[in-house]
Input
Amino acid sequence: MTPLLSLRHVSKTFGSGPGAVHAVRDVSLDVTQGECLAVVGESGSGKTTLANMILGVFGQSSGEIRFDGNGLPVRRTLEHRSAIQLVQQNPLSSLNPKRSVGASIRLGLDVFGIGARSDRWRLVEDALEEVGLPGNFRRRPPAALSGGQCQRVAIARALACQSRLVILDEPTSALDVLVQARVLRLLEDLRRVKGLSYVFITHDLSVVRNVADRVAVFRAGKLVECAETRAIFEDPQVDYTRQLIGAVPVIADDELKLRESLSGGMPA
Amino acid sequence: MKRTIVILLRNPLSLLGAVLVAAVVLSAVLADYIAPFPEHRGAVVDFVHFNQGPTARNVMGTDLVGRDLFSRILYAFRISLILGVVVLAIAPPIGTLVGLFAGYLGGRAEFVLMRLTDVFLSIPPLVLAIAMMGVLEPTLMNAMLAVTAMWWPWYARLVYNIARSEREEGYVLAAEVIGASTLHITLREILPNCLPAIITKMTLDMGFVIIIASSLSFLGLGVQPPTPDLGSMVAEGARYLPDSWWLTVFPGLAILIAVFGFNLVGDALREILGADQ
Output
């Protein structure tokens, strides 16, 4: 089976000469239909740069990105744009404070010409109901919703575009633990029902333990390990992965020690 | 909207501003009915009552050709407001568009648009207006044109700065990922977030436009006689101070009231709309 998304030797360099930043170096990985691939790494490890290249925010410096068997051009077609969508970290900033949440969801429908014009508000309400919100929420401004509800709206926006691959950029790290669990369950349900694929970007391994099929560990722009989630947790092959798994804070003292052991050796 | 009005009326200073602005606007709109001598706005001569101080017949006195000052001030408000409204109907949209595109697009567009804005900003406003009026004929129309030409760059600067910071917000990225057009992102996504600042500035500017327009007329470059204008009335009366004090004091007070009123309302709006963001 051809993977839905496939990266081959993808690199991204910002700037040139001695000041150049190699944000992503020679990364190859696949995401199959219906799979949830977690991309884990510290801040600055190139996770978001990777996401932006997949989304077409900017092009890669070298290498190839293929979607559904075809190469992805930097200038995306409408079809590619609707198929690959994004859910961002901060739900409050990802929704325009001056527009109703319904208008934010409807934008995708209008751009991609999904459904008949007169039918689109109903589709917006359907999308809201799919993420567990009442359809009449569409008239509300984001400020009238909680953080978790805003994140559901952001997920509804990605769904309404009829996306097949959703890039989840730290979708739960701005939410409190209980809401986090509910949003994760929603994402799981949607994946099962709709056959969606996820690229789940996070710095927190514990979050993906129950949702990811495979985990890709990034460090300083490089893919250091990529394996089944269980294998990563039970039998990590790389020291760095072991440290990341251990970095789940238990007691303050332990955390301090771990932080000390992690600092140093990490290129900026 | 309702909340805005309630807050506006609760603060005594804002309330004073609202009352002053309402008084100015009402006297301009209803001048035909309030003015005791509506015909005195034009070229009328009444040598029986010329250059008189305030009396029961003429509460603010009469000018050098016997016209009722109170009536003329009411009509002058009308001219000032028309000028302000026209300038503020043209300058902010131009400046806003320039600022939005420069701020959102960045790169070459930003360079060209903002350096052009800087050129306009580097010329002192009154000097620019005087130069324009020196070349053009001094009419109400050209006065509006001159004031507009010096006014839009301020809006370009204001909106540019907001647009540049909004560009980094997640909702702009979300719209870009969906593939919304530049027009949609600037006008429908970013512009609504600039509106509170623009509206506040417009209210404050109403007062400043009235001052600038009056300054132009004071220098003889604005509205021409016999059309009543606060600036030219002050200029005309200045020669007869302090004996015929009413010729300058009442038009001067009229300018003060209008500008002070709009500034108070503008300050109040800044607080209310700023808190909303």
Remarks:
- The first helix of chain A runs from residue 47 to 55.
- Confidence is low (pLDDT under 50) at residues 264-268 of chain A.
- The CA atoms of residues 10 and 63 of chain A lie 4 Å apart.
- Residues 5-262 of chain A form a domain with the Rossmann fold fold (CATH 3.40.50.300).
